[in-house]
Specification:
Layout: E1 4-6, H1 10-20, H2 26-44, E2 50-56, E3 61-67, E4 72-78, H3 82-91, E5 96-97, E6 99-104, E7 111-117, E8 126-130, E9 133-134, H4 138-149, E10 155-158, E11 161-162, H5 164-173, E12 178-181, E13 183-184, E14 187-188, E15 194-195, H6 201-206
Parallel strand pairs: 1-12, 4-5, 4-6, 4-8, 8-10, 9-11, 10-12, 11-13
Antiparallel strand pairs: 2-3, 6-7, 14-15
Length: 209
């Protein structure tokens, strides 16, 4: 079964408290989403394999560790997932970036795909799907299904705030996908928004309504 990782790191929790505040500006909100993504990426990549290499320092030769040639990809779910990309790429600059466009039907709350562009070798890469909000789990599940149809075998999902219904759906649909969140909130309201959450992440990142 997959695992749910909820971050309790003080820096993440501090930044999350500012992110939730309705008075936080668009500029600061956008920056915080990227910063939190970078901090989460640090932990989510903890199991990447290493290989021993020899380097020459200014003083002497030394044995050191480098990533063992693992191919990685970051795939944001449009549009809010774009806010997490820069923070991820800052940590793993050699990764490729794909995009999956999904929107939630306001009546059914089910995800509808409208765009997909992935690296041609996506099936050979470990994939980190990113989306700030993990509410119903519909978009996350649909994105993982789509990636598996493209041959992806190693997928992790990174979100900033989640809710129990989303985790239940992912366990049911994708028991092989580990989920990383900065917080698991109480519930969803009648409109499918996370409570207490932080509102619409996409609107707050891009300054739209």
């Amino acid at each position: 079964m997959s695992e749910l990782h909820v971050y309790d790191h003080p820096l993440i929790q501090h930044k999350l408290s500012i992110l939730r505040d309705k008075n936080t500006s668009v500029k600061e909100f956008r920056e915080l989403v990227g910063e939190i993504a970078g901090l989460m990426c640090y932990e989510a990549t903890r199991d990447l394999p290493l290989e021993e290499v020899e380097v020459e320092t200014p003083v002497a030769k030394a044995k050191a560790k480098r990533l063992a040639g693992k191919k990685l990809a970051v795939v944001p779910i449009l549009r809010a997932g774009l806010g997490m990309v820069d923070g991820m790429v800052a940590m793993i600059p050699s990764c490729k970036v794909g995009h999956i466009g999904l929107y939630r039907d306001p009546e059914t709350l089910e995800p509808v795909e409208y765009y997909c562009k992935l690296p041609p070798d996506i099936s050979e890469r470990d994939v980190y799907v990113v989306d700030p909000m993990f509410a119903t789990g519909g978009s996350a599940s649909a994105a993982c299904t789509f990636l598996k149809e493209h041959g992806c075998r190693h997928i992790k999902l990174m979100c900033i705030i989640g809710a129990p219904p989303a985790w239940e759906k992912m366990q049911k649909d994708h028991p092989d996908v580990d989920v990383y969140v900065a917080a698991m909130d109480e519930k969803l309201n009648d409109h499918g928004y996370i409570v207490p959450g932080l509102g619409d992440a996409g609107d707050r990142i891009f300054g739209t309504k």
